[in-house]
Design brief:
Helices cover 21% and strands 22% of the residues. The strands form 5 sheets. A 5-stranded antiparallel sheet has the order 6-5-4-16-17, with no helix packed on it. It has 2 domains: 69 residues, no CATH class; 419 residues, no CATH class. It contains 10 helices and 17 strands. By secondary structure, it is of the alpha+beta class. Helix 1 packs antiparallel against helix 2.
Length: 490
């Protein structure tokens, strides 16, 4: 099953698109929300799904539609959270217990490895390899000497190409358009569009409330020095670049669709993991049952693009074969062979048992990142925390978090924010930790009421989940025992 696309033309001619995940919603009534309609209004649904790239691969069957009249004003509001990996993010990892290791254990380790490899490549090898080594050496030195990307666009995070580009960073209290259109602008995003009909008395009409939850995971880009090294080896020694293409499910979107990743596109899509949602609930401003407000709760997230790539296995095998070709050639200098071996081990080695136990690339056990929206929107315009002291947004330790209401920045308590900066900043030390020691803060295990930004909604643990893990259950970090509404999964 895939996603059915409804196109709703309202009284003023605006076409609203509602995408319904058929894997979560089938064989039952599913509300599309509240809209202002007239004689010219239309609701359209094709029998071709959103992701039907091969004719007939995905279809929609439908037999009835219901319209429920309501007198009042249609209100629609959007709350959106966006995880932006800032190029200036400090990549210093935990010194006591970290899942990061080797050249990726921290900025200094990256510099020591990169400057050593780049210096050797810049003076040995073919013409293209020497040129690539020189560029890499300049880049790694600039990142070390001026780690603030605002200086020159270069930082340890940009050398690895793990961060989002500097140009995507918000520069005002208005949401950047790219946050909703470009998978390269964020790591994950979570949105909740609330709609309802408000009567003349200011109350919300029973049955009119709807929440449309949505999530998306961004893209993980390969380091530029890596793709340039693949090209240089091909030019200098005639060894074809490894085929990095693959196919697997839930890339960018959690919809159980298989997507094809291009061979040399330079990126791996992140995997979106199963979300958890609560159906809209009518309350008063205190959170008690009423008809003044709509309460919403939604949790979603994903994992770095290297994990699903490692999970398919055959990409690793191709890179290993490429590496072996390089190492077996007598005319190729040792620095080129060393670099080929490092690229395989650091980014592509699944280990002897496909990443379990944790061996090979550190990305075999890279923890997921997540966001949880928890808020109440009222007919009088208020945006509230449903529980005292509970923020509108909770999120994992990694990356900065930006929060908006209809495109305007807001604070964690729902109040208007007038600055461009994030409402939460990334903490790589805590994100890099593994369980154990005196400090519990780490990204593994279950999140729950009192875990803050630690843990995750899928209970993924350090070293115990294969890189291709795609959990079939999720829970709320607000309360892991709180039931999930299957019809509100997003």
């Amino acid at each position: 099953m895939s996603s059915a696309v409804y196109k709703i033309t309202t009284a003023d001619g605006t076409v609203h698109e509602k995408v319904i995940n058929q894997h979560e919603h089938y064989n039952h009534w599913k509300t599309l929300g509240a809209f202002f309609l007239d004689a010219n209004a239309q609701v359209q649904l094709s029998n071709v799904t959103q992701n039907d790239v091969i004719g007939g691969a995905g279809t929609v069957a439908f037999d009835a539609m219901a319209f429920v009249p309501a007198t009042g004003t249609v209100v629609e509001e959007k709350i959106g959270a966006y995880a932006y990996f800032d190029p200036d993010q400090d990549l210093t990892a935990s010194e006591t217990s970290s899942w990061l290791a080797g050249p990726l254990a921290g900025p200094q380790q990256l510099y020591d490895w990169g400057s050593d490899r780049a210096a050797a490549l810049s003076v040995q090898g073919g013409t293209a390899t020497r040129a690539m080594g020189g560029r890499f050496l300049s880049e790694i030195r600039d990142a070390h000497d001026r780690p603030d990307a605002d200086d020159d666009g270069i930082s340890p995070a940009t050398v690895l190409n793990e961060s989002n580009e500097l140009g995507y960073r918000p520069n005002s209290a208005t949401q950047p358009a790219a946050f909703d259109t470009d998978a390269n602008a964020y790591k994950i995003r979570s949105t909740a569009v609330v709609s309802y009909v408000r009567g003349a008395d200011g109350k919300i009409i029973e049955g009119s409330a709807d929440v449309d939850y949505a999530q998306r995971a961004g893209n993980t880009h390969l380091p530029r020095f890596m793709t340039e090294f693949f090209d240089a080896v091909a030019q200098d020694y005639g060894i074809a670049k490894p085929d990095l293409g693959y196919s697997t499910t839930d890339l960018n979107s959690y919809d159980h669709q298989i997507r094809n990743v291009p061979s040399n596109g330079g990126y791996f899509p992140a995997r979106a993991l199963k979300p958890a949602g609560k159906a809209p609930r009518l309350t008063d401003e205190t959170g008690a049952p009423g008809n003044s407000c709509v309460a919403a709760l939604y949790t979603s997230g994903g994992v770095d693009g290297y994990r699903p790539m490692l999970g398919v296995g055959y990409v690793s095998a191709r890179v290993e074969a490429w590496k072996d070709q390089v190492k077996d050639r007598g005319d190729i200098p040792a620095p080129v062979k060393d670099m080929a071996d490092d690229i395989y081990q650091i980014w592509f080695d699944t280990g002897p048992i496909n990443g379990v136990p944790p061996t090979g690339s550190i990305f075999n056990q890279a923890p997921p990142i997540w966001q949880e929206l928890n808020f109440t929107i009222c007919g009088n315009g208020k945006l509230l925390n449903p529980q005292t002291g509970t923020p509108v947004l909770r999120a994992a330790w990694m990356t900065d978090q930006y929060l908006y209401r209809d495109g305007q920045a807001i604070n964690l308590d729902g109040s208007t924010r007038f600055t461009a900066g994030p409402v939460m900043t990334g903490d790589f030390v805590r994100f890099s930790r593994v369980p154990g020691g005196s400090a519990w803060d780490n990204p593994f295990g279950d999140c729950d009421t009192d875990t803050g930004r630690s843990g995750n909604p899928w209970g993924m643990t350090a070293g115990l989940n294969a890189p291709g893990t795609d959990p079939d259950k999720a829970h709320f970090c607000l309360d892991k025992d709180l039931g999930v509404d299957p019809d509100a999964g997003g």
